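Bench notes, afternoon.
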Amino acid sequence: MLMRFELQKLYSKRSNLIVLLLLLALIGYSSYQAIRSVEWVDTQGNWETGYSAAQKLRQARGRWSGTLNQEMLEKGLETLKEIYSSAEAQSSNIEENWVIRNQLQGVGEIADLLSWSYAEAYGSFEKMVSELQSEDLWDFYANRTEERKEWLYDKSSWAYYNYTEQEKQYILKQYETMEVPLQLSYHEGWVQANDQLPSLLKYSIILLSFLLAGIFSDEFTLKTAAVYYNTVHGRTKATAAKIALGFLAITAVYWISVGIYSIVVLGVLGTDGATCLIQSHSGYWFLWENMTFLQKYLLSLAAGYIGYLFIGFLVMWISAKTKSSVLAVLIPSLVILLPEYLGVDHSSLMFYAIGILPDRLLDFSGALSYLVLYPIGNHILTSWTIILTVYPYITMLLSFLCYREYRHKQIA
């Protein structure tokens, strides 16, 4: 009965219904942005995006799917040499030559990975394609580890001074334990779903805070607090019902939002490449965490849910504490935006603190790529392992604080 009563109050507010409509619009916009980010260009310079582009890119990448071993690397390099030595490549700027741009789309991932491994040694991508030979490809994977080793032990690098020897060895071990050779496949569905997810989570929790902020403070707005919180059941069962309502609202909104988003984006762009390591995508080449695209996405969803619960209960607690929904709705924006404006030195304590702030839960890719390690005794912890472990406990503490806020107070 109490839950039904609280639900009726929640959904009877017109502002809350507007918030839900805006959430639906945000889901649609985020899905659209993810889908349109996949592009295909034909030989005439005509661009396509979305489903049709994904289908053509999947077909082109399909010819380059499989084990990225010596044979495939040699084949990819040979194809690049043919493309760059063609008459079309010599006739005009590569960026404006649609024939060349079209031909590069299938072999593009291999081209980018070769560039990460070799281009710096040759000075440019074009020079690498021209001078790199098939017999030089034996150290393709070893170069990744060697580049990181140089970065860690080069005295001109900030990594040399900011990582301990224990941390350097941990990083190198992560690189050395990557399972090679990599498996290649079309994987744009996972890449785009991962890339657009943080924006969806950050803006939707800001919208959701308008709904959550009134769960406790609305009693003061409606002038019912003196009665509601001064009764035995108002302080206990009714307060527990409000907490349960907040949990239900957060859970329902989160999983419905990411569920619709995931079904739409992955349904349109495809789920190919789910079991490939994320390092098979050039944008993740230097990440030291070894996981598949599917594992990364599932961890992103889990982290996002923990972040939703933490920020949601923080909003509810601030609302209960201050008796004001206005102050409470500012919390998500501060939590999300403040770290972006904290420009700090790599060696400062603040740089370590930023890596475990709650905004990392909503941006799991950022947590994965964060370059700070946290040594605890003989163990090395990363940013994402800490936030996934610590914030559930903080959230439980916040829920208890919400319950306790009016437990022994007289409300005037």
